[in-house]
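Posting for a labmate who doesn't have an account.
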Amino acid sequence: MQFFNWLRSFRTHVVMFLLLSLFSAGWAGAQSITRLDGSLLKRTDLTRQIQHLVDTAQVAGLGIIVFNNNRPVYSHTFGYANVAEKQVFTDTSHLYGASFSKAVFTYFVMQLAGEGIIDLDKPLVQYLPQPLLSYTFPGKLKDYRDLEGDNRYEKITARMCLAHTTGFPNFRWFEPDKKLRIKFEPGTRVSYSGEGMYLLQVVIQEMIHTGLETLAEQRIFKPLKMKQTSYIWQPRFEKQLVVGHDAQGNSTGFPRRPDANAAGSMITTLNDYGKFYTALIQSRGLQPRLWKEMTTAQIRIHSVKQFGPLSWRDTTMNDAIQLAYGLGFGVIHSPYGRGYFKEGNDRGWGHYSIAFPDRKIAIIIMTNSDNGEGVFRDLLQYAIGDKFTPWYWENYIPWQEKEP
């Protein structure tokens, strides 16, 4: 009998030991972030490192979300929404989304493709009841009359717009004469173009007879409970507003745009954009084949830089990561599988996101500072072990290497 009592006691102790071990492992996991190589990073260490980068590189404000198993496991904000007023940057502060606008728009377009509403490879002009050159629109992108005499615009498809192969410049107002033109045969080369995204927006609005803001609200913002996101300026955003900052920490203001533009008018918060990005990396709301197509290479990129004169000079420097464009997202190859990324940049703003679907690891970084992009390389490497983002191609020159 004494032996059986001892055995029962021994079993109890073993069970308690196993339960405590499992609890300890789970607690340790809850306090850590898993990086691409499988190593663990303490949340407190990440917070400490980001604070150091923000302080040292003089980043006005920064928000970050890290995803493990395609779910948020770390979300934090640093610095100020407005440096001059010492207004704290929070996850509900309203930011200018810049080209993160394109990611949401792409997601929406791929929904339409899955429903058969739009064919990604059908020339867009075939959807219009009137000639493209006869249309006029509000804002700076008011018409397409500059294209008269160059019928190559008739070849442009939704796929070309999303893959940035239309031949259009980024925006016509960056051209010396402020005119819109096609710079190369559509479909043959990547050249980042907000004009292409806006053309696709125009065609979809004409097809569905509904504006982008309403369409986005119905299909994305409302279903994902993104209550603080819009493609047009809303006066209610004024209460928790983030302003951009130049390299010296001076305010560059906030673009209060009254017209929806798929290429870059979205206002959002870190919390709201995190909801969208969670749905995106989980491929919710999209047919699996279209989600895979969207995040897989469509056309290789060989340019030295994404923008500027070096965007027309080719190199082999990014061949190792097989730099390419998918649909709405850049694509790279790494030892951990492909990664798909999206940037957002304007004067006073710098955002970045990248996801590695095979590892189910992703990250969002949003900053309201011209100094923000200077910490991207170090932050990506430290937070998730991403050493593959083409930071030089994207002109994310590390803060240590910038000229004073």
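Reply:
Got it, the structure tokens are right above this. Residues 33-401 form a domain with the Beta-lactamase fold (CATH 3.40.710.10).
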